[in-house]
Amino acid sequence: MDTARKLSPTTVTLHWIVAIMMIGLLGVGIYMEENEAFALYPWHKSFGVLIGVFVVLRVVWRIKNGWPPAAGDYTIWEKLLSKIVHYLLIIGTVLMPISGFMMSAMGGHGVAFFGIELFAPNPDPANPQEALPVNATLAQVGHVVHGLGGNILIGAIALHVIGALKHHIIDRDGTLRRMLGATV
Ligand code: HEM
Ligand code: HEM
Questions:
Q1: What number does the ligand 1 atom closest to the CA of 149 have?
Q2: What spacing in Å lies between the alpha carbon of 26 and ligand 1's midpoint?
Q3: Distance from C-alpha of 55 to C-alpha of 58, rounded to nearest angstrom
Q4: Are 183 and 11 in contact (CB under 8 A)?
Q5: What tens digit of pLDDT does each residue of 50-105 get?
Q6: Residue of the nearest CA to atom 14 in ligand 1?
Q7: Closest Cα to atom 34, ligand 2: which residue?
Q8: How far apart are CA 151 and CA 84, in angstroms?
Q9: Whose CA is nearest to atom 30 of ligand 1?
Q10: I want to staple 121 with a disulfide (CB 3.0 to 4.6 A). Which of 90, 110, 135, 143 is the partner?
Q11: SS3 of 122, please?
C-alpha cells in the first residue's frame, strides 16, 4: 500500500518503467517521423505495444490502490494542478499505444511485436510497396490523436518534472525521494 511516508515497490517500479519508456518513445517518435527513419518504426511499434501492457497494470493498480497521499503540505492550487497533470499523464499513456496501434493497423501498415505479427499489413496488389488502408477514417483518427497526444504529453511531462524538482529543491519535502523508493 502507498502511504504518505513510503510508496509501495509496485507504484515506484511501474512509475519508472512507464516514465522512461514514455520519454524514450516520444523522442524516437518525433525523430523517426521528422527524418523518415523507417528502420526505427518496427522498434517504436514493439516498445509502444510493450508499454501498453505496463500501462494497463498501472491503471488497474491505481483503481485498486487509489492515488498516493501527498508527501508534503501542498497548497490547494498545487494539489489541483498536480491532480490535473497526473490525470493527463495517465490518460496520455493509455491513449498513445491505442492510437498508435489504430493508425498503423487501420492504415494497412500492420503491427508486429518484436517480429511476431499482431496485425497483418495490407499491401496494395497493384503496387505492393504501398499500403492500402483497412479503414482510412480510423487510421486518420489514430494519427491525429497520436500527434496531438504526443504534444500534450510533452507539455504535461515538463510541468510534472518542474513540479517534482520544485518539491525537492525549493520545498525540500520528500515527494521526489519517496518516488525513488525512500521512506520520508
Ligand atoms: C506510449 C506509447 C507511444 C508513444 C509515447 C508514441 C509517441 C509517438 C510520437 C511523439 C510520434 C511522432 C508524432 C508526430 O510528430 O506527429 C509517434 C509517431 C508514430 N508512432 Fe508512436 N508512440 C507510442 C506508441 C505507438 C504504437 C503502439 C504504435 C504502433 C503500433 C506507434 C506507431 C507510430 C507510427 C507509425 C508513427 C509515425 C507516424 C507517421 O510517420 O506519420 N506508436 N509516436
Ligand atoms: C524524469 C522524469 C520524472 C520525474 C522526476 C517524476 C517524478 C514523480 C514524482 C516525484 C511523483 C510523485 C508525486 C506525488 O507524490 O504527488 C510522480 C508521480 C507520477 N508520475 Fe512522474 N516523474 C517523471 C516522469 C513521468 C512520466 C514520463 C510520466 C508519464 C508519462 C509520469 C507519470 C506520473 C504519474 C501518473 C504520477 C502519479 C502517481 C502514480 O500514478 O504513480 N511521470 N512522478
A1: 10
A2: 8
A3: 5
A4: no
A5: 999 999 999 999 999 888 888 878 889 999 999 999 999 999 999 999 999 999 99
A6: 147
A7: 86
A8: 16
A9: 101
A10: 110
A11: coil
